[in-house]
Amino acid sequence: RSFGTPGPGYLAYIPGGGVFPAALADFISATTNRYTGIWQAAPALVQLEANALDWLRDAMQFPPEARGLFTPGGSMAMFNAIACAREKLLGTEIRTGTVFVSSQAHHSIAKAARLAGIAHDRVRTIDVDGNYRMRIDALQHAIERDRGDGLKPFMVFSTAGTTNTGAVDPLDAIADVAAREGLWHHVDGAYGGCFHLVPELRHLLAGLPRADSLTLDPHKGLFLPYGTGALLVRNGEDLRALHASHAGYLPDNQLEFYDPAQYGPDLSRGFPGLRVWMCLKIFGAARYRAAIAEKRELAVWAAQQIAAIPGIVMDALPQLSLFAFHLEGKGLDTLDAQNQATRELMERVTRRGKVMLTGAQVGERFLGRVCVLSFRTRRAEMETCVQHLVEEAAALVAQAAEQT
Q1: Domains and CATH numbers, the chain
Q2: Who contacts 2 (Cβ-Cβ below 8 Å, separation ≥6)?
Q3: pLDDT per residue as tens digits for the range 301-344
């Protein structure tokens, strides 16, 4: 009963990939077993990893002075970003600091904030608009209220593709507020950041390159195995200032080269960047861009088809490649009835064994979701998804009508 996340019919959550060159990279990494915490221990391998990070930096249109590192996933990237912002903007006055997230932000942010010393009562939740995007007026008001209470707002998080509905926060407008108020702006691009690789889709993520830091999950958007996250920080020296350390047994040229251990908490580490480098070398950036663009095209097509199904109400159209909806109809007049029917719809389609769907509780409403990001998903799987939704929705609506 496990989730087959790399499967072509996996439309349930944001999937992890598993392209073959990444498995080959892991084999090479494990058999060579080189230490890549410092450049001097494995110069060619560390430089290779730095080159892969530079490619991500350029693709996200970050400046040349940006630095980062590969992480086990978005959660560790988030933790590192919060610690970096806290160190720069709060110093030892941690208790006065407040951070701001939308009600649709990923739960890992609050967890990472706790780990970084920012208690739960200093995390402010900002309301969203009708498209599930952070409200700028509510953010501005929350900042002013905290300042009036003698606190120090220092960080705001925006999301490039939420888990519930795929919403992209108004990144440009949030960047304007952060710049005006002196806040660190972090963009959680774990799901949606890699869509920025496609020039034709960059308008969907307008403002992303203005972030002070950015989370990426290549194990989502680049179809790599789980355990492949990344963090970029606009001013790389801010990240080094947090992690730089010295000891008598370490080389004295650590400032001369890129040392991963100087940019993250891990000292002992393997060779995570080889996955990214090898896949890009074998497939090429153009094929990646085409594959990512295809996922959005499939989601847009499927959303149009599903919106036409009798009883289906679209709650969130695909801003990237995820969309959400619920079921209504005669006999489904209450919110509880609609929630139960929508949940049953997801379960019935999944039980048919061709595609896997799940939903999400957003406020008082349960939404069905479709997320297209498996590298194996093609038009055939989306046609199956649509057909199964057509048949099961009709059955549920008819059943509800008979019971009234």
Answers
A1: 20-284 (3.40.640.10), 286-402 (3.90.1150.170)
A2: none
A3: 999 999 999 999 999 999 999 999 999 999 999 999 999 999 99
